[in-house]
Amino acid sequence: MGELRGYRVGNQWRVRGRDWLEYTGALTGPRVFVVANAKGGAGKSTFATNLAVLRAGEGKRVLLLDLDPQGHLATLLNMPVDPDRTTVQLLNEELRLPRTAPGHRDRWHTLWTDLLQRVPGADEHEALSRLLLVPAHNDLADLERANFHRTKPTEYALREALEALVGLGVEIDEIWIDTPPNLGPLTRNALMAAHYVVSPFAKSDLGLDGLERLMVLVEQYLEFNPYLHVAGLVMNYGNPRTIMHNEIRETIKGRTSLAPFLLESYVSEAERFNQAPRLGVPLVLAEPNSSSAQELRRVLQEVEARVQ
Ligand SMILES: Nc1ncnc2c1ncn2[C@@H]1O[C@H](COP(=O)(O)OP(=O)(O)OP(=O)(O)O)[C@@H](O)[C@H]1O
Ligand SMILES: [Mg+2]
C-alpha cells in the first residue's frame, strides 16, 4: 500500500477516486450487492429484504444495510430502531481517522459490534438467525444534506466502513444494501462499496427514465470502481398479459446500454406486497409458496447465475 496523495481545495483536503481505490485495493471478503433505482417505489426495499432473506435461507450469513433515511428495512423486518445504532453512526464523519491513527481498529470494532443487530423472528424462521441488520434513521437525510466527510471523498465512507468490518474478521458472506430513491451521496456510497447492483424497475415509462439515469451513473462509477457489475435490471409490477409489460421489455431490449442487463424473470404486481409490513417477516418467509415468493426466488437464481 503506497502513499495516498491528496490535494487541497480551499481549506479542504481531497483525494482522487482512482488514487483512493489504488491505495485501498479491492474489497475482499463478502460479496456486496446494492439495490438501486433513482425512482421511488420501484421495489428496492422489497427486493433488498426478500433477496437477502432468501440468501440467508441458503445458509449464507447476510448483513442488510439500510442507507435510505425512510428506514423501511426495519419496518419490513419488524425491528424496533434505536436511533443511536443506525447507518448514521456508520457514516459519521468523526470516524474518518487515518488508518495509522492510534485506536483506529478499536474504534471500528466498538462501532460495528454495537451496530450489527439481530432481527426478530429467528425462533420461527431459521433463515433470520443468519441475518444481521444495520437499520437507517431519518437523520441520514441530514447527513446527506450536510457536506459530510469533508476530509475524504464523500463516496468512499461506506467502502471504508466495510473494509474495517472485513478487517475485524466478522463472519459475513454477503452484504445487501438498500438505497434511497435518488442518486445522491448515500446511493453513491453504496455503489462505490458494492460489487454488484440489482435494479428493480416499475413497469412504466417513468421507471425507464430512472433506469436510464442509473445506467449513466453506473457508467460513471465503473470508471472509479472497476469492481462494480450490473447484476440485473428486474421488472417489478409485471403482468405479461398487458401491452405495457411487453412494450417496456421490448424498449429495453432495443437499448444497447440496458439490454444486456435485463433479467428474463420478473415480479408480478400482487396485492400481498402491500400487506408485507403487517406480516412481521418478509414475504418469502410469510408466504413461501406464493407466486410472488417463487418469482423472487427465480430473480435471485438469475442474479446468482450472472455474478458467478
Ligand atoms: N410487485 C409488487 N406488487 C404490488 N406492490 C408492490 C410490489 N412491489 C412492491 N410493492 C409495494 O409497493 C410499495 C413500494 O415498494 P418498495 O418500498 O419496495 O419500493 P422502494 O423502491 O423501496 O420505494 P422507495 O423509493 O420509497 O424507497 C410498497 O408498499 C410495496 O409493498
Ligand atoms: Mg425503499
Protein traits:
single chain, 308 residues, alpha/beta, Rossmann fold, eight-stranded mixed sheet, two-stranded antiparallel sheet, 13 helices, binds adenosine-5'-triphosphate, binds magnesium ion
Can you put this structure into words, describing what you see?
The protein has about 300 residues and is of the alpha/beta class. It has one domain: Rossmann fold. Helix content is about 40%, strand content about 15%. The chain has 13 helices and 10 strands. It has helices at about 15-25, 45-55, 70-75, 85-90, 105-115, 140-145, 155-165, 185-195, 205-225, 245-255, 275-280, 285, 290-305; strands at about 5-10, 10-15, 30-35, 60-65, 115-120, 130-135, 175-180, 195-200, 230-240, 260-270. The strands form 2 sheets. It has an 8-stranded mixed sheet, with helices on both faces. Helix 2 packs across helix 13 (about 290-305), helix 5 (about 105-115) crosses helix 7 and helix 7 (about 155-165) packs parallel to helix 8 (about 185-195). The radius of gyration is 19 Å and the shape is globular. The two termini are about 30 Å apart. The mean pLDDT is about 85. Magnesium ion (MG) binds next to helix 2. Magnesium ion (MG) binds near residues 44, 45, 68, 70 and 72.
